[in-house]
Amino acid sequence: MLRPRIIPCLLFRDKGLVKTVKFNASKYIGDPINAVKIFNEKEADELIFLDIDATVNVTPPDFSMIQKLAAECRMPLCYGGGVKTVEQAKKIIGLGVEKVAISSEAIINPSLVSSIAQEIGNQSVVVVLDVKKSLFGKHEVMTHNGKKKTGFTVVECAKRFEKLGAGEIVINSIDSDGQMQGYDLTLASDVRDAISIPLTLLGGAGSLSDITELVKQCGVIGASAGSMFVYKGRYKAVLINYLNQEQKDKISLAACRKND
Amino acid sequence: MITILDYGLGNVLAFVNVYKRLNIPVSVAKDKNDLVTATKLILPGVGSFDNAIEQLDQSGMLPSIEKLVFEQEMPILGICVGMQILARSSDEGKLSGLGWIDANVRKFDISSMPIGSYLPHMGWNDVEPIVDSCLFKGMDHDARFYFLHSYYFECDNRKNIMAETDYGRPFNCAVYKDNVYGVQFHPEKSHHYGSQLLKNFSEI
Predict the structure, then answer these.
(1) Distance from CA of B50 to the nearest CA of A (A)
(2) Is the peptide bond before A32 cis (omega within 30 degrees of 0)?
(3) What is the structure's pLDDT at A259?
């Protein structure tokens, strides 16, 4: 039985990990390598690691940092941030990363998705879509840490990138980021129904039941979270944590019932 | 010594790290001279079938590897696309595979799979050994591994199948023929289950 993937998402800025709220108010969380070591011990399903300043500051990916991460990481790793060329994507895979995520650059230059997929295989190409709800209730794709509008709806973009060869779509909800009040389930269903490649939702998870609700609605899916796995308690003390096997099994069971 | 074949594809470092943690001597081979100390070989691989075959050809190591595998009967373990190229051919490519195991590589047919199946097959799935095999020795019955692929291995003969995984239908996730082994999943990224499998391979 294929299980839902429960994926801590780590945000990287100024050589450290941060956590944001609605893509703002970034708070320092700790050292990236240390966090990876803890998720190794806890046997996390996968990790998503996003350098949130690379695109905005127009800097290339920090390859030496990626290499250190990949060497430490005992679970599949997805890296995103500042990837603009096929060569960069190839280099990142060569450093021992399983999946490369593209976001802003995919919107600017959609054919990059197919060129990268041809080189490293569809299964290793992830498109991350940052999504904001407009006044009229439409989910619009944004870039540059939520500052630039694209005019595209999330379903349009997801379908387009599936056609261009993406192996996975990650939907990052700006409105839900850091809220810990649950995933945007309408957003999740809309995209899940539109594509037939793996999908991961990011933004809003605050508890085990939030993840359970997502899989009850969408079946086997990627459930990613930042705050939930780096904060503990009402006062949000920084404490890297993850689900135990029993909790993960419960989630798998919920997904299984949906698929039956 | 366990030797990871570095022909430009796959996560060589991840294998090295697993073996280092297990305190098992490990080396990396980039050309045939690096194969002198090898006692077991690991053939990693990601990306497309044809690219893997081409890169392996260009590495210049293939004739030496063939000698080790067929004359000295050295165990070799193919991983993911490194497994798939052990077959004769793949739906994914035009080039011939190594043909060391009588098999072809097929594309999953999403239209014939249950609703809620997506491609690539991505994530943690159960592995059911169908024979008592050295690779799965000492493994919990709930052993699960990380998969990331859209094509699957299909042996001509049941006797070459070591384990199966269900994704819409059962497929061959671990195969063997004499001293040639292949697994579709990524043991190097499958936590303690994967470490156990790689340790078992080192003890064959």
Answers:
(1) 11
(2) no
(3) 62
> At what angle are helices A111-120 and A86-94 packed, to 10 degrees?
30
Distance CA A52, CA A16 (A): 11
Q: How many domains does chain A have?
A: 1
Residue type, A88: Q
- CATH number at A95 reads 3.20.20.70
What is the pLDDT of chain A when averaged over all its residues?
94
Model confidence band, residue A61 (pLDDT cutoffs 50, 70, 90) = very high
Residue A46 contacts by C-beta under 8 Å, 6 or more apart in sequence? A5, A7, A75, A76, A77, A78, A222, B123, B146
Bridge partners of residue A16, in order along the sequence: A13
Global pTM reads 0.95
Structure tokens at A153: 């709806």
pLDDT digits (tens, 9 = 90+) for B107-154: 999 888 888 899 999 999 999 999 988 999 988 778 899 999 999 999
Residues in A closer than 8 angstroms to B120, CB to CB, are 122-123, 167-168, 197-198
ipTM attached to this prediction: 0.93
Q: What is d(CA A103, CA A107) in angstroms, rounded to the nearest whole number?
A: 7
Q: Give the domain range for residue A236.
A: 5-259
Tokens encoding B72: 């000295």
Strands (E), B32-74: 40-43
By annotation, the residues of B acting in catalysis are 80, 186, 188
Q: Degrees (nearest 5) of the Cα angle A222, A92, A242?
A: 35
Residues A139, A133: contact at Cβ < 8 Å?
Answer: yes
Residue B47: per-residue pLDDT: 81
Residue in the block written with tokens 């909800």:
A173
CA-nearest of B172, B48, B51 to B104 is B172
Give CA–CA dist A162/B188, Å, rounded.
28
3-state SS assignment for residue A95: coil
- Residues A33, A64 contacting (CB under 8 angstroms): no
Q: What's the distance, CA B3 to chain centroid?
A: 14
Which domains does chain B carry? 2-202 (3.40.50.880)
A-chain CB neighbours of B81 within 8 Å are: 121
Both structure tokens of A67: 């290499």
Contact between B45 and B52 under an 8 Å Cβ cutoff? The reply is yes
Q: Which two tokens stand for residue B124?
A: 């943690």
Q: Are B191 and A75 within 8 A, CB to CB?
A: yes
Task: Give me the total of CB pairs closer than 8 Å, taking one residue from chain A and one from chain B.
Answer: 100
Helix (H) or strand (E) holding A112: helix A111-120
Chain A: residue whose CA lies nearest to B48: A121
Cis omega before residue B120 (within 30°)?
Answer: yes
